[in-house]
Amino acid sequence: MTRAVLSLGSNLGDRYAHLRDAVRGLGDAVLVVSGVYETRPWGDPDQPEYLNAAVLVADGVEARAWLTRAHELERAAGRVRDPARRYGPRTLDVDIVVVWTDDGVPVSSEDTDLVLPHPRAHERAFVLRPWLDIQPYAQLPGHGWVTDLLRAEPVAADLARLAPRPDLLLDSA
Q1: Domain-wise residue ranges, the chain
Q2: Which of the listed residues 36, 71, 73, 139 has the most CB atoms within 10 Å of its CB?
Q3: Are 98 and 37 in contact (CB under 8 A)?
């Protein structure tokens, strides 16, 4: 059994439907889903704004299985990767932020296709803020309390630009 925090983002097509379908696609593995936040693009500003959310999931799988599920959800949403625009627009992006074993030990991985914890999560308000919705006392292994990370620049400046979208609710039903 592993637990994981997944970060969801979409800025092409029906952004809300892509997030909603991803959550539903995770099925019974979903424990709790964050609120939805509208955010400016990160790393490549010439694109539409994103909708972002986070999901806490648990299942009897190894850490790598979460990556497989993430790619399946992205494919189902019609995601096309553009190697020339690493942070470019996408129908759906599913990142594995952190994975824990059944006894609560964070999983560490340096594989080129699965680095855990996520190597840039500590820099991204659009990952950290939704995560607090689902785990108010969250800690990012190797970086500390999520609340502290959100207070530090440049993340704090990005946090000020996140717009909660209480009109958009996600659930796994």
Answers
A1: 2-164
A2: 36
A3: no
- Using CA atoms, how far apart are residues 105 and 27, in angstroms rounded to an integer? 24
Per-residue pLDDT of the chain (173 residues; tens, 9 = 90+): 899 999 999 999 999 999 999 999 999 999 999 999 999 987 788 899 999 999 999 999 999 999 999 999 999 999 888 787 777 789 999 999 999 999 999 999 999 889 999 999 999 999 999 999 999 999 999 999 999 999 999 999 999 999 999 999 998 66
2-164, superfamily in CATH?
Answer: 7,8-Dihydro-6-hydroxymethylpterin-pyrophosphokinase HPPK (3.30.70.560)
Phi–psi pair at 11, nearest 5 degrees: -140, 15
Nearest to 7 by CA among 109, 120, 88: 120
Which amino acid is it at 15? Answer: R
Neighbours of 83 (CB within 10 A): 6
- Specify the DSSP class assigned to residue 106: B
